[in-house]
Design brief:
By secondary structure, this protein is of the alpha/beta class. The chain folds into three domains: 83-174 and 372-475 and 500-539, Rossmann fold (3-Layer(aba) Sandwich); 177-368 and 583-599, Dimethylsulfoxide Reductase, domain 2 (3-Layer(aba) Sandwich); 628-751, Barwin-like endoglucanases. The chain is built from 29 helices and 27 strands. Strands 5-4-17-16-15-6 form a six-stranded mixed β-sheet. It has a six-stranded mixed β-barrel with strand order 22-26-23-25-24-27. A five-stranded parallel β-sheet has the order 10-9-8-12-13, sandwiched between helices. Strand 24 and strand 25 (692-700) form a beta hairpin. Helix 7 (156-164) runs parallel beside helix 24 (506-516) and helix 8 packs parallel to helix 17. It is globular.
């Protein structure tokens, strides 16, 4: 590291310039977890954000969302003081429709500013009275990955709610189905490293919009293509990545299991598998081979919308091109059979033996490399010190509507389910926009007896229902430590600027609440420094005891900004490829084509009492073109993520909305579906099913297959009628992991007039 860089990391200006450059880390929910250099002027104001050129994955550039991050930090619409709902302001949105000249004065008018002491004293008193009257499990925290920083995501907040005895939240909404499914096959979330994609001769992007949502993998894809590699994209939607691919395979939603099994059928039928690798490294091959015989190309074609010839070509091209790498993303697992889809796709490199080739294998998530000391951070043992004296019940975040409207409401189920939810504490999330079955969520949030607190940076869809809104910091305004799920660097994020206004980070908020609740355990006095050390679990030399982090210390991170994990246990081969040799962290010690976990347990089912299948098999989703429901609702909906928003984050910023304007508040529909309905481009449309109805404008496109429509996730109050796309999605859960099934949704469409 140069002297200039070292000085900038420490936050001190050089002698030649009043500016200083601070190393931070983008904490938003993205695999890239970029290293960000923030330039700060002499007044303490951030003037520039840029990618760190010294970071091997960030490579000096940022995505379009974060390149404009200062628009977010210094937005005039930020919440910068604690707010309390006015007595005369009913819950619910006060305005709808986004315009660049319409700010949030109406939203702010529903609240009155209060001091932090007033807010915290009132919140603590209300939580205490609710716990006394209804039991502490009637309090529900709701959070996810609004920040991926380790402390902000899960540290003092978990300690607080564990000690309180509040309900535990099963955080399933994004990655649980795919993560559990991958681990059923491999035992640990590891995979092909980003730089190794440059050595691939074939790259299969399966449900992965690399160019839109994983942009720092793209340079390695381009390196491979310059060397002659082909890029094949499997996606129902013509994403940015699909538009740049050599071959876009527009699969029907929710049929990925069938396609993967069809590929396995062809590979085994034609003898294209690696028998030596299979014999040494896999468990259950013979059983899988029998199952795969059922999935002929002709049968799979009827489900997927592909031709038998396309399935044959895909399977042969994948199996005969070496090395071949798969980038599998979490969109695949958001169908009702999504866990099985991930399992089946994950088995492909095991059958071809591509894990032993640099540039081969697959990547879903690399987060399994980060072995943090989470027990020390989160202190689940504090539940035993709560008034319950036991672990609290668990509420699935993907069924928030049910939790707020039905949980414990019926006498016959109350004893088993526990009490009704009487307090909701939201942070790092915007459930009124992102949770499925939005109308049920709204009904719950409108309950007059529900006490709702939201820790946020802006007045979101969720704050429209809050009793208190507390100002939160951005990643520029606090210190953090962070891993990633798209690379293997531990990173330190320094505080670049002072918090704006009265914004405070999560750890400060829950430490202050703990004091007011009378929690006397010493862990509630910990600051960021102490908790970062606890996460690393250092030895007497300050080096981490965590597996894979033995060379990492907090001091070293502060100096360097980012340090790599050591994933190989072989000192003679530090660059060893994942899953090239065993044993693995599965019951058999091998790659499990037949899952011993599923064979011996029904706990991984969807909760309906079904017995999970230890082998992958295709079952059409309850809502698909193959189901009876299609007679009334014939179109399959993709409630997809916008390219220029991060879930619902950034959706309120004018610059980001302009970048996204082509598809914002639009329903993308194929002309073959639009013409019989009398729909022209730009028409106002009603899109509905039994759960709700939304109004969107028509955007005719051939970038989506007939029978499929797409609309992007957005803030509900940015729409003309205040409705969001999640009014149409259900609370049905996935086959593995009990996660959300956003992409198993049927709708009907007509002109709104």
């Amino acid at each position: 590291m140069s002297a200039t860089t070292a000085a900038s990391q420490s936050g001190h200006p050089s002698a030649a310039s009043p500016l200083r450059v601070v190393h931070t880390v983008c904490s938003h929910d993205c695999p890239d977890s970029c290293a960000v250099r923030v330039t700060v002027d002499a007044t303490g104001r951030a003037t520039r954000v840029a990618g760190d050129p010294d970071h091997p994955i960030t490579q000096g550039f940022l995505c379009g969302k974060v390149a404009k991050y200062l628009d977010r930090v210094y937005s005039p619409d930020r919440v910068l003081t604690p707010l309390r709902r006015r007595a005369d302001a009913p819950k619910g949105p006060r305005r709808i429709g986004h315009a660049t000249d319409q700010k949030y004065s109406d939203d702010f008018a529903a609240f009155e500013p209060v001091t932090w002491d007033e807010a915290l004293d009132s919140i603590a008193a209300r939580l205490g009275s609710i716990a006394a009257a209804h039991g502490p499990e009637s309090i529900l925290p709701y959070s996810y990955a609004g920040t991926m920083g380790l402390l902000g995501y899960a540290s003092m907040d978990r300690r607080f709610f564990h000690r309180l005895g509040a309900s535990q939240l099963d955080r399933t909404i994004c990655a649980e189905a795919g993560g559990q499914a991958w681990n059923l096959v491999y035992g640990r979330k590891l995979g092909t490293a980003n730089p190794d994609f440059a050595h691939a001769k074939l790259i299969l992007a399966w449900g992965a919009n690399i160019h839109g949502n994983n942009i720092h993998l793209w340079p390695f894809v381009e390196q491979a293509r310059r060397r002659g590699a082909r890029l094949i994209v499997i996606d129902p939607y013509r994403t940015r990545t699909a538009a740049l691919a050599d071959w876009h395979i527009a699969i029907r939603p929710g049929t990925d299991v069938a396609l993967a099994l069809g590929m396995i059928h062809v590979i085994l039928r034609d003898g294209l598998e690696d028998r030596a690798y299979i014999a040494e490294m896999t468990h259950g091959f013979d059983a899988l081979a029998v199952r795969a015989r059922e999935y002929t190309p002709e049968r799979v074609a009827a489900w997927t919308g592909l031709s038998p010839a396309e399935i044959e070509q895909l399977a042969r091209e994948y199996a005969t091109t070496r090395p071949a790498a798969i980038r599998l993303n979490y969109g695949v697992q958001r169908a009702e059979n999504g866990g099985t889809a991930v399992r089946a796709i994950a088995m492909l490199p095991a059958l071809t033996g591509s894990w032993r080739q640099r540039g081969g294998g697959a990547q879903l998530s690399l987060s399994g490399g980060f072995q943090w000391n989470r027990a020390a951070l989160e202190r689940p043992d504090l539940m035993l010190a709560s008034p319950l004296g036991r672990p609290a019940r668990v509420v699935n975040m993907s069924r928030l509507g049910h939790a707020l409207t039905e949980l414990g409401a019926q006498p016959e189920t109350a004893a088993a389910e526990g009490p009704c939810v009487h307090a909701l504490f939201v942070y790092n999330s915007n459930p009124a926009a992102v949770a499925p079955n939005q109308n049920a969520v709204r009904r719950g949030l409108l309950r007059p007896d529900l006490f709702t607190v939201v820790h946020e940076q802006f007045l979101t869809d969720t704050t429209d229902y809050a009793d208190f809104v507390l100002p939160a910091t951005t990643f520029l305004e606090h210190e953090e430590i962070q891993g990633a799920y798209g690379h293997t660097f531990v990173q330190h994020s320094a505080q670049a600027i002072a918090p704006l206004g009265e914004a405070r980070p999560n750890i400060w908020l829950f430490r202050e609440l703990a004091a007011r609740m009378g929690f006397r355990e010493p862990c509630f006095q910990d600051d960021a420094e102490a908790m970062m050390q606890q996460a690393l679990n250092p030895d007497e030399r300050g080096l981490s005891r965590n597996p894979g982090m033995a060379a990492i210390s907090l001091e070293g991170l502060r100096q360097a900004g980012h340090l790599p994990l050591t994933l190989s246990e072989d000192p003679a081969n530090p660059d060893a490829l994942p899953f090239a040799a065993g044993p693995l962290e599965t019951p058999s010690g091998k790659i499990e084509l037949y899952s011993e976990v599923l064979a011996h347990s029904g706990a991984a089912s969807n909760g309906a009492g079904s017995i999970p299948d230890p082998l992958p098999a295709f079952t059409p989703p309850t809502e698909s073109r193959h189901s009876p429901a299609a007679a009334r609702f014939p179109l399959e909906l993709l409630p997809r993520k916008a390219d220029h928003f991060m879930n619902s984050t950034f959706a309120n910023l004018d610059g980001h909305r302009r970048m996204q304007s082509q598809t914002a508040q639009a329903l993308e529909i194929h002309p073959d579906d639009a013409t019989p309905r009398g729909i022209a481009d730009g028409d106002r449309l009603r899109v509905w099913n039994d759960r709700g109805s939304v109004t969107l404008r028509a955007r005719l496109t051939r970038g989506i297959a007939p029978g499929v429509v797409a609309a992007q996730l957005d803030w509900s109050k940015a729409s003309p009628d205040g409705s969001g796309i999640n009014q149409l999605t259900s609370e049905r859960l996935t086959d593995i992991g009990q996660a959300a099934t956003f992409y198993s949704t049927l709708v009907q469409v007509a002109r709104a007039d």
